[in-house]
Amino acid sequence: MNHIIFYFTGTGNSLWVARKIGEELERLSPTCTVKIIPITRLQAGTTGKVELSTSPNASTTVGLVFPVHAWGVPSIILRSLDLLREGGYYYALAVNAGQVANTLVQLSREMEKRGLTLSAGFSIRMPSNYLPFGEAPKEETQRTCFREAEGKLKQVARVILDRLNLPVEKGPFWQNLILSGLHRMSAQHFPSMDKRFLVQESCTSCGVCERICPVENIRLENGRPVWMHHCEQCYACIQWCPVEAIQYGKGTMGKKRYHHPEITLQDMERARETSKN
Ligand SMILES: Cc1cc2nc3c(=O)[nH]c(=O)nc-3n(C[C@H](O)[C@H](O)[C@H](O)COP(=O)(O)O)c2cc1C
Ligand code: SF4
Ligand code: SF4
Question: Are residues 112 and 21 part of one domain?
């Protein structure tokens, strides 16, 4: 059996989840092959390799692993759906900080419009990277979160191998009712919300922000980042800046940054490189 796992990530949580589910699939089914591919590569175009990996046959499973953004699916994932092919067993892992709301229902509907079936969808809780609401959780809290996520992913892997059709997971009624409406209102403003990013004097012109932005929305001009208003609001730039020189309005000053401890800057840069191959 072939397993293709597409991921999108800002601070590494979704890449870690993609790796963990891949490892578990390999452990349970040692003869299978697992490919973990940044979704930006699918966006990048129609190279032979991408075409191959997006034309699943009946025995292929295709996973979509992404962070929940404002109670919904990131727009880069929605745009990618047009490039996916029918066939195969599709599942999704909506990586979130406790408010998955109707995200997986939204994804399922959007896939249906394109002739694709989402056979299962799971909410995976990880630490929050939404800096305006709070800084990086304590290490112990993070570890508990990772342990619980890992436990759930073990169960999810069995569902994938058995190719079960299950109702997608969703949040409690109040989340679905109120927050999903907020998603519809806020998501349209995401591309230009990068106007609120500020860069401070402490910027060393290292270029990390430019190199890791998954959608090439940052250009260094005179050694300083300039945001180009096609932002995904993934928070990679603000969270990975080595000297914390990027702020989002006034509310992020002095807050401890977060990215997944097992995901490196090189992992983030590599994801960008492969998007250009
Ligand atoms: C702009 C933005 C919006 C977010 N909205 C939500 C949300 O609606 N619900 C939620 O539970 N987490 C939300 N989060 C938190 C992320 O979904 C969560 O931290 C996720 O694990 C990040 O994954 P990543 O490291 O792969 O980017 C949001 C984060 C950002 C940056
Ligand atoms: S990552 Fe930070 S220090 Fe490096 S160029 Fe960007 S803003 Fe400046
Ligand atoms: S500009 Fe920053 S927040 Fe926007 S997509 Fe790029 S890395 Fe993510």
Answer: yes
Q: Phi, psi (5° rounding) for residue 72? A: -160, -175
- Cβ of 80 below 6 Å from ligand 1: no
pTM over 0.85: yes
Mean pLDDT of the chain: 92
User: What pLDDT is stored for residue 204 in this prediction?
Assistant: 98
Domain count for the chain, please give it: 2
Q: Is the pLDDT of residue 158 over 80?
A: yes
Tell me the per-residue pLDDT of 91-121, one tens digit each, with 9 for 90 and over.
999 999 999 999 999 999 999 999 999 999 9
* Ligand positioned closest to the Cα atom of 129: 1
Which pLDDT tens digit goes with each residue over 196-209?
999 999 999 999 99
Q: Are residues 172 and 230 in the same domain?
A: no
Ligand 3 atom having least distance to the Cα of 233: 3
Both 200 and 128 in a single domain? no
With a 6 A CB cut-off, is 103 part of the ligand 1 pocket?
A: no
Q: Report the nearest-CA residue for atom 28 of ligand 1.
A: 69
**Nearest-ligand number for the alpha carbon of 201:** 2
